[in-house]
Amino acid sequence: MDRTAQLTARPAPPGIAYDPPASGTSPHVRAARVLTANWTGRSTVPSRSLYPHQWSWDSAFIAIGLRHLSPLRAQTELETLLTAQWADGRVPHIVFNPAVPLDAYFPGPDFWRSATAGRHAGAPRTVQTSGIVQPPVHALAAWLVHLADPGLSHARGFLVRVYPRLAAWHRYLLRRRDLGGGGLVSVVHPWEQGMDNSPCWDAPLARIVPAPPRSFRRADLTHGAPEDRPTDLDYGRYVRLATDYRDAGYADGHADGHTNAYADGSGGFAVEDPAFNALLIASEHALALIAEELGTPGTARRARAERLTAALVERLWDPEAGQFRCRDLRAPTPDRGLLPERSVSGLIPLLLPTLPHPVAAALVRTLTGPHFSLGDRTRLVPSHDLRSAAFDPHRYWRGPAWFNTGWLLEHGLRTHGERDLADALREAVVTLADASGYAEYVDPYTGEACGATGFGWTAALALDLHHAPLAPPVPELTPPA
Question: Which residues form the Mannosylglycerate hydrolase MGH1-like glycoside hydrolase domain (predicted)?
């Protein structure tokens, strides 16, 4: 029986709605069609309707899948993004396509005003971008793309060209964004962490005075169901934070540890997030491998990754919860305590190969326990605690399951020897991605598609899990037996 027949013949698992895909094509072909439809010639949009520009961490995940279709396109994806890098090293979270109408997405280039507001931070003059960032998955993606076709990579000088840009990106984060002084990177806007509407941000955002409702027009509600999207109140707070950051010239903390007025408190939002920092650590390990491939020692980068791992455990690990938590650096408490919400972000550090064994084991227990219920009530990992009063199975990052976090946790489980769980999660990502029409995210109980369909990273990461060997994403990072 071929792959398509197996999928259509398999009965729906308990609690999961499953619509068999149309006959005549395979999941591989359908995923490839999504990536082809979203390709613009130099990069891939997450969604033609909802997200019509290039997004930073989307492009990194998309490149990981594209490497199975065209290593050249995967390399081009990352190269295009990195050409929009600012002189201070930051990689902006959006690179705007000038051919897209201004009203197709908000906030657009006329809001961010990167060339003027960001001139002191070195924003590029030839392309318009946002001024905030997203999680640093890029070095890991670059290494995996290189491995897909090392001959092509060497012939084009791919690693030679992207390595200094990736090194500058990490340097920016480590020098300018250690706002807590403990070695970890902070985000200054919920959009930077990538899980935009997580309940983890409710308490920090409550201190922010929202922008007036009539001062902006949301384009997302034109293409997405309002009940699945952030509320107008939350969106007003996002706009206020972005406006204040823009008006401060996108300035961050300085390398000597002193911060400007915005980063030191007037901005109102600074959070150390476990997933953001875990992805930086994974990419530091990958950058060490890239350096060694280019004939440069990677020892210092590995040592930095180990220091960051130790800082992550020291500052964000909650042994009673059995997972990592976010730390609000602007909390009105003397010790700036950990935020109480349980998010999938607190599970992502499972990706790290040198995580202490007791920590990794506790993360697996939490992942399969009642708060996330992987393998029991859910086949994909919900984005938030099932037992939380804030949980919503459909609303953006407040409960639905996302395919990029599934991809990361599949590799985390595999890295730490949980092969059966990893195999089941791998199968769930591939199967439910295809069954949902490559949805942006899905109801973790029923598998119902939410948000956009034909979503870029969903197709790319399902494609990657369909083709990649049963091993962690960077085999050299596997901890010793």
Answer: 51-458
Exposed e or buried b for every residue in 126-161, given b needs 16+ CB within 10 A?
ebbbbbbbbbbbbbbbbbbbbbbbeebbeebebbee
Query: How many angstroms separate the CA atoms of 84 and 72, rounded?
Result: 19
Beta bridge partners of 442: 401, 449
Give CA–CA dist 322/300, Å, rounded.
31
| 186 and 180 Cβ atoms separated by less than 8 Å | yes
Residues 6+ apart with CB under 8 A from 453: 436, 437, 438, 439, 440
Closest C-alpha to 466, from 140, 163, 48, 27: 27
* Closest listed residue to residue 372, CA positions, set 448, 425, 316: 425
By the 10 Å C-beta count (0-12 exposed, 13-18 middle, 19+ buried), 15 is classed as: middle
Question: How many Å apart are CA 191 and CA 238, to the nearest integer?
Answer: 8
- Of residues 310 and 220, the one with the higher pLDDT is 310
324 backbone dihedrals φ, ψ, rounded to 5°: -85, 150
Spatial CA neighbour of 73 closest among 26, 32, 17:
32
Torsion of CA 238, 241, 242, 247, to 10 degrees: 160
Q: Which residues are catalytic?
A: 196, 440
Helix ranges restricted to H, 106-208: 109-112, 114-117, 138-148, 150-156, 158-176, 190-193, 202-206
For 243, 300, 477, the CA distances from 212, given in Å and listed in that order, are: 12, 48, 48
Closest CA to 433 of 65, 54, 40: 65
pTM: 0.90
Q: What is the pLDDT of residues 328-342, one digit of tens each?
A: 999 876 455 899 999
pLDDT > 90: what percent of the chain? 79
Going along 241-287, which residue ranges are E strands? 271-272
Nearest of 314, 475, 432, 422 to residue 31 by alpha carbon: 432
State the Cα–Cα distance between residues 421 and 111, nearest whole angstrom: 44
Q: For residues 237, 239, 244 and 245, what is the CA-based torsion angle, rounded to 10 degrees?
A: 110
